[in-house]
Amino acid sequence: MSAIARHNVQTSGSGERVMLFAHGFGCDQTMWRHVAPQFEDTFKVTTFDYVGAGESDSSAYDPDKYAKLDGYAADVVEIGEELNIENGIFVGHSVSAMIGALAALQRPAMFSTLVMVGPSPRYIDDTDYVGGFSGEDIDDLLTSLKDNPLAWSASMGPAIIGNPDRPEFGHELAESFCKLDPEIAYGFARATFTSDNRADLPNITASTLILQCRDDIIASKQVGEYVRDHIPKSKLVMLNASGHCPNLTAPDQVSAAIRDFV
Amino acid sequence: MSNPAKISATVRNFDNAPCGYLTFDEEGNILETNNRLREWLGISTADLEGSHVTHLFSMASRIVFETSIAPLLTLKGQVEGASLDLRAKNGAKIPVLLSAEATGTGSQRLTTLVFLLADARRNFERELAMARSEAQAQLLMKQREGELREQFIAILGHDLRNPLTSISSAARMLSAEPLSDRGKEIIKLTQGSIQRMSLLIANVLDFTRNRLGGGIELNLSDGKELEREIRQVVEELRSAHSGREIRLEISKQESVRCDVWRVGQLLSNLLGNALTYGDPAQPIRVVCSALKDGGLELSVWNGGKPIPPSAMERLFDPFVRSTNHDDPRGLGLGLHIASEIAKTHGGSLDVSSNVERTVFTFRLPNGELET
């Protein structure tokens, strides 16, 4: 099966450059539903689900391959190859910021621009570095995911959404959001929250935009600044938004900042 | 007409309702909480002032809340029954079930959370999850053991064949030598035993191959050789059981597409069954006739005690042997393999049994197997 089919790759829009949107841990490509369409007029817009998320092919899951973020980065490169991406823009939310960085390090010609929304090169504190979490916190998270796999089950079912802004979609649009296979979610959480990509940052040659929110407990402002200070061609933009998901809570700000940068 | 005294009592009751309740604004700042929740957390209203909703959760649950619950609330407007941990002021974790709903947009956005204590439920779920993973591990182990055992049997069966072939040709050569009457008798008995053993091995091998996923392979032909094969099988069993009478009735018929050797094996198994369980004083009949559509009907008849109704259901299962027989012989694979051969041919194997006779009938409709 092709990488395009495995990852439920969706393409729209027209333009010279490809803009590849990647979701983070805990959700799927619906995370980008308010942002990606805003670029359809000038870019070839592509979204996808990582293996185990959304409508991806869960049978392609291999615990060894996906034990590290490199496994996910390899998939991004594979998708890029199948779509013949050159000089592309990789927009990664949360952990995908580092997955994109790994992909760009492997294939600098494929992704010449990186947009990192709430990036963190390491979530666990380390001597002088403040990631925001202790090793114990992350162990606790992994244990709770393991023996409480139902944490998300309630939120994974299909839902009918009412869309107040687009009444024409009404209640007919039945969708499931943030569908995650519990076993795979555990593996993804482990790969994500035990990752350490600090040493990779100085090697990034792509010009990089970092979007940072206030009160982001997953990736604090301090972490965002660390990323800016260690990637040579980078710029940090503070958004007037709080939390970890500005792509949902402040999509227009996210779009405007990306448009300014590219 | 509403009663003001009653309403204020209701509000007070809600403050102490058996659930935690809180609302927060578009930035995640806590707006109000009920008394019950503050009691659980061991905090006062002053403690909560201006604090962010995520601070009420354990670190692990904060991550889940921010990466999964919050996006869902934005996308879907509601979350039902998510399982999270609150963190009390003293550091204790409080397992809760969370339901949430968000209304309004922009600065008008208001989110309401309701918590139910879920300690017992969490333990129950954990036990269920543990029991399931144990059961899965055991099943996997048993499956592996089973596969190993079947591989062992397959290899054993295969290795037994070679010496048996040597014994068989030795017996055949010996039978061509001048022998005393007693010697001839012994050779005959030996050849009968060789034949039974070779059938037994064939059945065991087929069974294990089938279980190992190989299935029974068919080597199909136009079936012109079938009559000769049937006669030969009957002849072999006659010579091995000289004390028994086996009558063969073949009516003229069209040839039917089948694996001739397999149908021979099926007949051999049915005859072996009849010889073992049938009344030795009564003849066994092998009847081969044509179906209306030109297909094949092959049946084996024997007299003696009928098969008890209780045994009928599992008659074609592997390792089932007669319980109303004093001398259980064989592995109980014969009928199972016969029925598998019938199935693989797209045909059927049926049985009827009463005090007068027990009849096994193999039917192979014509045109069932394409070229």
Automatic annotation (TrEMBL), chain A:
SUPFAM superfamilies: alpha/beta-Hydrolases. InterPro entries: AB_hydrolase_1 (IPR000073), AB_hydrolase_fold (IPR029058). Pfam families: Abhydrolase_6. Residues 20-257 form the AB hydrolase-1 domain. Transmembrane segments: none annotated. Belongs to the AB hydrolase superfamily. This is AB hydrolase-1 domain-containing protein. It comes from marine sediment metagenome.
Automatic annotation (TrEMBL), chain B:
The keyword Cytoplasm does not apply. Its main location: membrane. Pfam families: HATPase_c, HisKA, PAS_9. It catalyses: ATP + protein L-histidine = ADP + protein N-phospho-L-histidine. InterPro entries: BphY/WalK/GraS-like, HATPase_C_sf, HATPase_dom, His_kinase_dom, HisK_dim/P_dom, HisK_dim/P_sf, PAS, PAS-like_dom_sf. One of its GO terms (molecular function) is protein kinase activator activity. Its EC number is 2.7.13.3. GO terms for cellular component: membrane. One of its GO terms (biological process) is osmosensory signaling via phosphorelay pathway. NCBIfam families: sensory_box. This is histidine kinase. The lineage of its organism: unclassified sequences, metagenomes, ecological metagenomes.
